[in-house]
Each structure stands twice: as C-alpha cells, then as structure tokens.
Recover the amino acids of this structure.
C-alpha cells in the first residue's frame, strides 16, 4: 500500500519509515515545519528543529524514498502555541502535544495523506492499534515506559482507522535503535527529544512571558476563604496540585487547588485536598458512548490510574478524591485499551 | 585545463574558450559581458555597482535575488496580472537619482514586463535600469540595446546550460565598486578564476534557437482549466510558463500529488528548508488565498505532446481526488 510516514528526523519515526519501506510499501516521507526554528536551531534534544528536518531528509535519501517538508507554521501557531499561551493565561495547564496530535498531525497531515492517495498514515508513536470486532482499537504500547497512549486520546475512530503505529509492539527503545542500526540510519544514536519542542530554552515561563505577559503578571496567593498568604509572579507559573513556588504557604503544607485568572489569584489549600467530581469537555469516545463506563482514568501524562465511572455527558466520578488540573487530559483505560478521553474543565471557584 | 590568466599555452587555450564564449553571449545580448556565478550574483553586482549612491526602486514581483540585495529598496506596485504600474514608477522617479530593477519576465507567472517603457521613463529622469532577464532569456528576445537598459542579468542553467555561471551584461562601463575584487579578473569587475567548462556550456546553450512552446502551453492550460484551474498572470506571458491556481487546495498538496505521479512542478520560490512558502509574487498581485494555492508548470525546451498529455492526466487525477474530499 501507499503510506505517508510522518518523519520528525528522530530515530523512532525514521525506523517507522524504514520498516514500512522494507516491508515493500510505497512510503512517502513528510516532515512538518512547525515554526521558524532560527531561534532554536542551536538546541539539541528538542524535536522539530532545523537539524531534524535535515536528518529526516538524509534518512529518506538513505532509504531511497520520497520526502517532503510540509509548512504547518500558521496552523501550529494558532492551534498549539496560541492555545498553550491562552490556556495558561486562563488558569489552565495545557497539553500542547495533544493539541498538536489532534490538529496538525491527525487532522491536517492525515488529510494530506488522503489527498495524496495514501491508504494510511504512519507515525512513530508508542501505541498499538488493535483491530477488534468493532473496528480499530487504541492500546497501550508493549513498552509501558515509552507508552504514549495518553497523548493520543483525542484521536478519533475514523483517524485511528487510517493510522499505523509500527513501534507499539517494540519491546523497548534499544530494540528500536537496533533496527535503526540494521537499516543503516545515522540517527540510530540520536538523543531522544524532550520537553516542549517550541520552548527553546526548556523554560516554558520565558516563552510564556513573551507570548502572554498577562499570564506572568504578579498577584496574590490566597486560601479558599480569601486569607492572603503571599505574592506570586504570574498564574502561568502554577498548575493545580503544585506545592512549589508558594513561599511561606509551601511550609504550611499548602498546595495549589485552583487558579482564579480574572483576579490573578493562586488559591491554595491543605495537601490532600481533592475532589471526586470532574467535568470534561471535547470528549473523544473510541467506543460507542455508554451510559456509564467503569474504567480507570489517568489525569496527567505521568499519573497513576484512578478507578472511576465516566458518564456519557463527560462527567466523571472518581472512587477516591484526586486533584486534577484544568486543561489536562482525563483518559479512560480498561486494561491496556484506551476507550476515550476529554479535557478537564475548571471547577467553579 | 589551464587558467585563462596564465601566460603558457594551456592558459592561452583556456582564455580563447573564455573569450569565444564571451563574444557569443555578447552577440546575443548586446552588451559587455561580466561572468559571474549565476543570476543572483549578477543582480547583486548590478545593484552594488550601478546602484551605488542611488535610491533603489524595485517591482513588487522581483525575485529574491533583487529583493534581498538591499534593505532600503522602495517597492513599486503591480496590477492583478503582475505588470508594473508605470505611473507609480514615474512618480517614484521624481526624487533623487535612482537605480530601477525590473525583471523582463516573472519566474513564477511568466508575465512579461513593459521594460522598454520603463527604460524610456528612466532615461527621462536620469535613472538607471537593471533588467533581471534570468527567466526571460532563451524564451523571448532579450537584447540590452533594444530594451534600452543599463544592465541585464542572465543565468546559464535557466537557458539549459550547466548551473554555476551567469553574466551581467553592461551597456557601458560603470563607476561603482565591485563585489569581489580579488585577482582583477573580468577587468577588475569580478575577481576569481572563471569557471571555463561551465561558461563554455553557457555559451553553447545560448546559441540554441528557442523552440515555440506556445501551442503546448495552451494545451496544458486548457487541460488545467477544464479541471477547475485558474491560469494567472494575464495573456502576455512567456511561452513556457504556466501559473495555475486550484481554489481550496494548498500548493504543497498539488505539488506533492503531481510529483508522486511523475510530474515535477514548483510553487512560489524554493525555500532552503524545502517547505512551500507563500508566493510574494501572487500576494503582490492581490490574489489573497489563491496566492497559497497556485503551482508553476514550466515546459522544458524539449517538451513534447506526450509530456503535456501526462501532465493533463495527472492533474485530472489529482483534482478528482481532492474534489471527492471536498464533496
């Protein structure tokens, strides 16, 4: 078949392109240009920089496949970077990788793959697509340390049906690097990408201060009943559940329980504060929505599983209280399978 | 091969090739030849030397070789077909002495500019005129004397010769500085040992008669129009260049789809990252969203009816696929 391989220039997606090519498919490599990388090109280790486009092209040359650089700068700016900044300014903690997957990759790039007559789009994500009785299912990767299923909860069933994730069955990253070496790819030893690709310094607060100065304007740290405990340097530096940067309040065992953006207030409460009720928006179901789904939910990318009941209207009842951060994802798991997920709404303050 | 500056036999042989090539190119273009590395250097040299201590006026659809040469250039507007606004030129010329840069024909649309009219205006106002004929040479009659310009830039590979050489054609000696002085080659106007083998290929290419590609271009255009394409740039265009927009479909999608089908076209001007950038030419023509939805189809000198038929088939297949998506 004809497959569009999304190639970042890293070892994972390079191996994807190589494996599909070796299996005899017609592979078309595509690398997204997400932003003007002039300011960040000196940085190693973050994805999507200029060096990465060069690497992707050299991998395609080595494999002997077609390769194109796709200009996604405008869409990435509006759908990912602006959303990132606006979320922080509104007191939410965004997940830019989910937004990027949801828009730039699994909407726009997938549309391009269809326009080019491709049968599927392949990515280097560590997840598994399992074809079940009711169509394709999304499952966690074999290598749970690398599992990226949480970041793909917004992938629709129609998108899943056109997706290939050849790395989901890999036992570990060493095996992927070994494949890269076997395929003769120079990126075999390239370091993993980390952090948020468009934050050049690795310090998101510097980026945020440029994009949305209001998210970095000073304000008060208060308790739920309004007692002022200290000052802060911008609500964009805080996320619900955080115990750092609270000055004296940290020593009092306080954590952030809410962010009041209009009044620029960081609201703290005693450690152990939590809620059993969550409301989600933009829920993506990977099954026909049930009235009530018993499952385990993950409220952050690196979080334990919380047993819960999810209602069809996107309300969630946790068995035990937790402190979820608005803007993050709440992803529904049954064993290794992902059944859906949505974005956590802020509770009324 | 010898160095044309050497006194020995091999050097003389090399110099003969160099000077024979110079004469052949000069006969075609009607001026004194300074060999350069290509069109970009020729434009840069013209702006540096002829534009010394002068204002720089450039058309809005000029190539980046001209647009990027000087930060203080004044941009002259074009109409919806990309033709220079001569009234705006005349108004702009009323100030202090200027160098005007105008391309003979646009590289994205093939639109031919009113160079002779612009030259007359320049003469009347004591301005100089440099003509970027990189796209036009070999595809229409280009002669420095007929055009009435002060200088002309051309490039070997655009004529079908090897890449790596170009020329600045001069009506008269200049009084401005050189970009590269070096060993004093090209009578001190461009230092550095000339690339003799490439220059010989350049001269051979310019001697080739231009084929009449207009009938093939019209067939290709009709095929694109039948599929919903909109041909841009007006009627007065080079015989080999088609700029065709497909509303609602990004240029990069069209370009890749056609490439996969074996048809190699381009869009905008090539960016070093390889991404398809929005066309400043089409934006200057006021085309809005269409500026990101147009491709350039260039017919090579040896294009055949079979090539045009293959293009028509691939274009129809592409439009059918993206139209199904929109439905």
């Amino acid at each position: 078949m004809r497959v569009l391989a999304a190639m970042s220039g890293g070892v994972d997606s390079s191996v994807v392109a190589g494996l599909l090519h070796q299996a005899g498919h017609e592979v078309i490599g595509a690398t997204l240009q997400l932003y003007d990388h002039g300011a960040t090109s000196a940085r190693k280790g973050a994805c999507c920089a200029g060096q990465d486009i060069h690497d992707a092209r050299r991998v395609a040359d080595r494999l002997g496949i077609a390769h194109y650089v796709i200009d996604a700068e405008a869409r990435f700016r509006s759908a990912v970077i602006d959303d990132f900044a606006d979320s922080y300014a509104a007191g939410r903690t965004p997940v830019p990788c989910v937004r990027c997957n949801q828009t730039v990759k699994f909407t726009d790039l997938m549309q391009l793959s269809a326009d080019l007559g491709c049968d599927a789009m392949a990515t280097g994500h560590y997840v598994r697509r399992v074809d079940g009785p009711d169509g394709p299912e999304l499952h966690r990767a074999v290598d749970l340390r690398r599992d990226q299923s949480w970041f793909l909860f917004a992938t629709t069933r129609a998108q899943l049906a056109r997706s290939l994730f050849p790395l989901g069955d890999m036992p570990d990253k060493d095996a992927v690097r070994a494949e890269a070496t076997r395929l003769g790819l120079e990126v075999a030893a390239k370091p993993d990408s980390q952090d948020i690709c468009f934050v050049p310094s690795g310090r998101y607060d510097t980026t945020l201060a440029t994009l949305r100065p209001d998210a970095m304007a000073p304000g008060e740290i208060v308790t739920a009943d309004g007692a002022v405990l200290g000052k802060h340097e911008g609500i964009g530096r805080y996320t619900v559940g955080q115990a750092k940067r609270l000055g004296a309040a940290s020593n009092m065992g306080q954590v952030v329980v809410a962010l009041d953006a209009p009044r620029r207030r960081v609201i703290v409460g005693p450690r152990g504060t939590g809620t059993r009720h969550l409301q989600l928006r933009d829920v993506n179901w990977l099954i026909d929505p049930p009235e009530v789904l018993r499952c385990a939910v993950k409220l952050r990318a690196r979080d334990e599983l919380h047993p819960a009941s999810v209602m069809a209207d996107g309300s969630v009842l946790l068995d035990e209280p937790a402190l979820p951060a608005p803007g993050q994802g709440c992803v529904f798991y049954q064993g290794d399978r992902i059944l859906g997920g949505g974005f956590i709404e802020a509770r009324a303050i | 091969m010898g160095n044309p500056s050497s006194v020995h036999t091999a050097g003389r042989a090399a110099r003969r090739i160099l000077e024979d090539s110079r004469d052949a190119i000069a006969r075609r273009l009607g001026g004194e030849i300074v060999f350069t590395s290509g069109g970009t250097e020729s434009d840069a040299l013209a702006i540096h030397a002829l534009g010394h201590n002068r204002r720089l006026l450039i058309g809005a659809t000029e190539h980046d070789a001209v647009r990027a040469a000087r930060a203080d250039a004044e941009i002259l507007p074009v109409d919806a077909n990309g033709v220079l606004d001569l009234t705006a030129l005349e108004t702009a010329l009323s100030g202090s002495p200027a160098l005007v840069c105008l391309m003979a024909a646009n590289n994205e649309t093939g639109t031919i500019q009113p160079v002779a009219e612009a030259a007359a205006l320049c003469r009347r106002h004591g301005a100089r005129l440099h003509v970027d004929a990189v796209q036009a040479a070999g595809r229409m009659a280009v002669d420095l004397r007929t055009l009435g310009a002060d200088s002309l830039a051309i490039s070997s590979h655009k004529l079908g010769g090897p890449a790596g050489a170009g020329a600045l054609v001069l009506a008269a000696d200049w009084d401005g500085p050189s970009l590269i002085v070096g060993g004093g080659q090209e009578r001190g106007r461009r230092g550095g040992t000339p690339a003799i083998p490439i220059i010989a290929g350049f001269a051979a290419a310019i001697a080739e008669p231009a084929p009449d590609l207009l009938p093939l271009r019209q067939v290709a255009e009709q095929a694109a129009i039948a599929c919903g394409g909109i041909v841009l740039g007006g009627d007065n265009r080079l015989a080999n260049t088609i700029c065709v927009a497909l509303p609602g479909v990004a240029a990069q999608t069209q370009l890749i789809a056609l490439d996969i089908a074996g048809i190699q076209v381009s869009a905008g001007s090539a960016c070093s990252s390889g991404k398809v950038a929005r066309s400043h030419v089409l934006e200057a023509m006021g085309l809005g969203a269409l500026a990101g939805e147009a491709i350039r189809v260039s017919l090579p000198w040896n294009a055949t009816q079979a090539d045009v038929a293959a293009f028509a088939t691939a274009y129809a297949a592409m439009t059918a696929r993206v139209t199904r998506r929109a439905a």
Residues 39-49 of chain A have pLDDT under 50 and may be disordered. The CA atoms of residues 131 and 224 of chain A lie 49 Å apart.
